[in-house]
């Protein structure tokens, strides 16, 4: 047994337990889940997975679990995420516990993590790597095994399509010259931590999946069982596995796999149509910079082509072992390589062939043939090829039109990520150009919102709920001005993100910060901390940095806030300045957690796209000791270079496409300054808004008021749900009376709402919650309070108010109507009258003095919570009936996984 697998755990813990059936070994295994006091019951899901996984792996390897017990332990501050100590697996708390706010996405992540670590009890612990250069084999295989078992336990999840989306991150990393082979030498301890990366885990898993597709899964596991029996209780290396598989499968496995594991990078196939029935396939090294030298392009990979055509959609397994290959294909109809996306390579099609595939998708002819994984593959290959300069960026934007009727959540997630990446690279370009790219995103996603609506029907597939949340979020992030209703409270966290991106006020920021401090849910804490990074004022950004580095935030959670700070120009600049000012302290403080140091570097510099920033980074680290993080630093610098070249190539191409397709005014470039944060000052912002008006009947700023209006209501509810009602009136927000008193968020808003006005002096600030006019006034007044010395901003707001007053007059009633139909207003009025009666009764009985106002703040807070809770009831009731949790926590939790792997702009 290797010493790194030995562990003890001491602390105040409680546990739940279960036993395996023992059907295979004849001896049940005791499985326990330990957690901090009060949290163990949240581990039931993981415990059930452990019991099933132990039995499954015992059968799969034909070897019973070798220990008498298996413990899973939830550790509150555990930055690695999970560790496969033999018989005592440790997990970061939110990686193993579920609570009432957890979502289907979180369940998937926990399942994959738990099963991955349990697979190591055999493949990694019973048979251990010979040296760290073989790390990839055991981590890659555990990742591959986790997907196999999750697919077996939850076939409806379609995890192999999800696998394809995860592989995109390592395809991006491995396209850098600074990447490394899967099978990499390790000469000193400092290199060990650096190889725990996506290449070892996901490329390792991907090439093993490719091997499984070539040999067949049954043959592969025959060889694996032989390997396990031969080397159990000992050590083995990569060649030991290849030789064992070759013996069992009678195939030249070593030659095939060594070319994939000992060579950095991967190929892309260029398809050339020679005539109507003949194509030529040529393989070349794929580099994200696109500047391949002749001496770099002489390597040949064995490539399993998996070719499908319109005539024969069943993939043909053709092994390409030469630089070029001629094939017979009907080029007048669609054809596709890498069917099923099990191959670790990309494909560049001629424009006509790509158009045929797109038309096929648009017409819905082959959605059963071109499954989710293949549609993801088409999108991601096209996006990667434009970034590398193989194709113009306009070709990818054109391809998106074929996906307008797409219904799969994973495909739309990839669309959102690719557009986010485009925005991230173009972020410091002229503001109208950036906004036009966001408009592409908005138009795509608003159609999904219109199609799916806002409510969660009984029995709805959770994947549809996830798609609805994704669409609402990205339509909102792009500031959809056609949405005349505010975002519903069941999407509270996406509202947090949108509002922090569209306001410089601190009320909302403070409320989210308070939410972080009050919630006991580890997942909700991560989400709230992540949202804080979206603040778009200097004060918010600086406070987020200070808070993230304070003792209030666990070390394992710090990166959650830093990841999202880089999504704005201002955030990038502040994060980079912070790192330069505090590098020595950070490096010393977190030296023992080099993964933290690596991600801090990634988040601080990983999205720069200018020559100036490239030089700044080089100059700063020139005299620093980077021996422990040289790989990530080199990757980031190569990523910056990639984006510089991309912008130089396609800046004009993108602007022409945006203008041609009606997303960008033809004079926009000439009228304003450069940069998201207003390189041309506030005049540039004003010009931007004027240009926006030429496209829309009203401004983005007006739309943000709707969102802010909803936020105040949502925050009011949040405060009540956390602290409880101060006045016990027996009315719960979840009661049927409350639920039926308010229409769905999609109800008609044709009639004028009743008047509701709070007259007590202490409640004047609440009137904007019920009157859009009052909210408009309050909004401007707050900006005057917080933005001293910025009269030009107020003049701009006044200009907008006059220019669009007619629209606002039309909209104010419909917005208020969402929250206050007649029955709701009547309930509020009755509740207020009841409180006044109770107050008078208390005065009459001597409980209260005549001069007391019966704590009106308490009463009105309760009233506000009651009125807002009515609007939540529809979504809450649907969740209770269907079991589909409203995705208010899902969206950003899911994004944190994307951000961990690269998400909103990776290296």
TrEMBL record:
Necessary cofactors: Zn(2+)
Skewed-composition ranges (Basic residues): 772-786
Keywords: Aminopeptidase, Hydrolase, Metal-binding, Metalloprotease, Protease, Zinc
SUPFAM superfamilies, sorted: Metalloproteases ('zincins'), catalytic domain
Cofactor binding remark: Binds 1 zinc ion per subunit.
Domain Peptidase M1 membrane alanine aminopeptidase: 45-260
Gene Ontology terms: cellular component: cytoplasm; extracellular space; membrane
Pfam families: ERAP1_C, Peptidase_M1
InterPro entries for this protein: ERAP1-like_C_dom (IPR024571), M1_APN-typ (IPR034016), Peptidase_M1 (IPR001930), Peptidase_M1_aminopeptidases (IPR050344), Peptidase_M1_dom (IPR014782), Peptidase_M4/M1_CTD_sf (IPR027268)
Any one Gene Ontology molecular-function term assigned to this protein's record: peptide binding
Active site: 117
Record site feature (Transition state stabilizer), residues: 201
Residues annotated as domain ERAP1-like C-terminal: 334-641
Entry keyword Zinc: yes
EC nos: 3.4.11.-
CDD domains, alphabetized: M1_APN-Q_like
UniProt biased composition (Basic and acidic residues): 787-803
Region (Disordered): 721-758, 772-813
Biased segments, Low complexity type: 721-732, 741-756, 804-813
GO terms (BP aspect): peptide catabolic process; proteolysis
Family according to the record: Belongs to the peptidase M1 family.
Protein name per UniProt: Aminopeptidase
Species in which this protein is naturally found: Mortierella hygrophila
